[in-house]
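TL;DR need structure tokens for one chain.
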Amino acid sequence: MKDILVALDGSEPADRALTVAADLAVRYGATLHLVHVMLHPLVVSAELKEFARTERVDLPVAVEMSAQGQSIVTAGRVSATGKGVHSVKTEVLTGDPAEQLLEYAREQAVDLVVVGRRGVGKIRGLLMGSVSWKVNSLAECPVLTVR
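>> reply
TL;DR here they are.
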């Protein structure tokens, strides 16, 4: 096992998934891929950010979401390296979480995907769908769902 992908969203189930994935990465000497997926597109250029800063204009929530996503993967990196993981890659993506995770897993040829399960319940899960369920059902590699 060389590459392990763990989906991070700042939730407790994702934190538990990170712990399990980090343990596996240490055991197998694998690279840990920490991925956070934002739901909304980010269309703010660096120039616009600078303009907003100098003119004291509030930017859309998307900028805050991007910063939050970076914060989540950075915290994940700190946690993973603290657990002894030597190789960590981070990525913040935009779009449908399950689709983006599946695409990343394919492109990076990961050996295992680790996701947390929120336990939204049968009815809500059926109506809304579940990232962990979609990834588990559609991934081309093994998926470990952590409760």
